[in-house]
Specification:
Largest sheet: 7 strands, mixed
Distance between the termini: 31 Å
Low-confidence stretches: none
CATH superfamily of the largest domain: Nucleoside Triphosphate Pyrophosphohydrolase
Strand content: over 45%
Mean pLDDT: 96
Number of strands: 12
Shape: elongated
Order of helices and strands: EEEEEEEHEEEEEHH
Number of helices: 3
CATH topology of the largest domain: Nucleoside Triphosphate Pyrophosphohydrolase
Number of domains: 2
Amino acid sequence: MSERRISTESIYDGVVVKLRRDKVVTERGVETYREIVAHSGGACVLAVKDGRVLLEKQFRYAYGKDIYELPAGKRDGDEPFELTAKRELEEETGLIPLNLKKITVMYPTPGYTDEVIGIFYADEFKEGVLHFDDTEDLTSEWVDLDTVYKMVEGGEIADAKTLVALLWYKSGIKI
């Protein structure tokens, strides 16, 4: 199945996202519109050490509250996901992963955005340099796995990329 773009209209060209409206024709010949939020994507790291997971707590304006999530960030242009993961982990936590492994990529909201998030795992680190972006205000802490899964069950952790990574870890699937 596919759809063919007939035309495209740029609606908004922002720093983080771009919005466009595409006129498309479906395989059945129906003409319709698709509104697409274009995003460069990002990466996150499930950092595990001594039975604990590194979680961040950050205020997320769109939800109006603090969110627990894995260290993560936006890709710079089309940089490889692995480089984004390494850069963001060091910037936000001061840790450099020594054995970064790709778990998967995910499409967080395929109905209206082309965003892709690379999800990685690491359990060996060396000390790097903590350096937040000007707009970042977050805290990070190592939380034991039992508590993390209770936070998931209780709805305290609801971030999609974090849930995917934790589900992968709990499943025992090897990479």
